[in-house]
Sequence to fold (300 residues):
Amino acid sequence: MPEGDTIFRSARALEHTIGGKQVTGFDTGLAKLASVNDNTPLVGRIIDKVESRGKWLLIHFSGDLILVTHMLMSGSWHLYRTGERWKMGRSRMRVVIRTADWEAVAFNVPIAEFFTARTLERNSQVPKLGPDILSDAFTVEGGVQRLAAYAQQSPEAEVGNALLNQRVLAGLGNVYKSEVAFAAKVHPFRHIDTLTPAETERIVEFAHRYMQANVNDGSDAIVTYSGNRRTTHSMSREERLWVYGRQGHECRRCGAAIMMRRQGAGARSTYWCPDCQPWIGEGAEPIGHATIVNRRKVGC
Ligand SMILES: [Zn+2]
Fold:
């Protein structure tokens, strides 16, 4: 049975492979989906984003259309290069999304439905996102309340994981997870219930500030979407990062060696400065790798 992290990885693989691409073909064996596709065709739309929320996988298309699938016991998403042989029979295919180079195929998914942003908001089964850091309605105060509420519900959640959890705050990606924790001087492996109110506020403030700066300077997307991340990254942008991707390099503030350690169900890389972000909590301080590695690209 697909667990949450399997779906998370499927979403990530789909996002990396077809995120940002244009749909060139769509096929489905499900009547309801076919009828939506007849009325509002998928071909020509851009795959804006792929995300997981619990056991649900959401594929967002441009023009306000969201394909939501639930895997239950038997479903799975596969990725094939165009022309590659499928590993499951055609009779089990439920959905195929084609781009110029790839086919994303959902086999045996028992639940698949199209939503708009509005109908999804009204649906009670698919978990809701937290407040969107980039929306006009977002306030630091509201973000602080959301983090505090989450700390009550999951006191042992690690700060880095909480920042990536889109049901707590929506918008932060893996790069800014580390950057925000550094700016707020908070060790990313601390349990969220060890945060002081001032630390929580700093975290939300920096999240808000960085996300806005990131959008406003036109180099956005490193947070939301790997398609652009690969093409827009530049030396100057790397220069701007405090810790992300800087394992073993000197902290720009204090000179200590930046550490990296994998974190959470998705084993995402997390970077921090052991001096600027002291460990607070029970148990030993989590130690990361601090040997310099040659990274060919900034990624995750
Ligand atoms: Zn430092």
Notes: Strands lie at 25-28, 47-53, 56-61, 65-70, 76-81, 93-98, 102-107, 111-115, 259-263, 268-272.
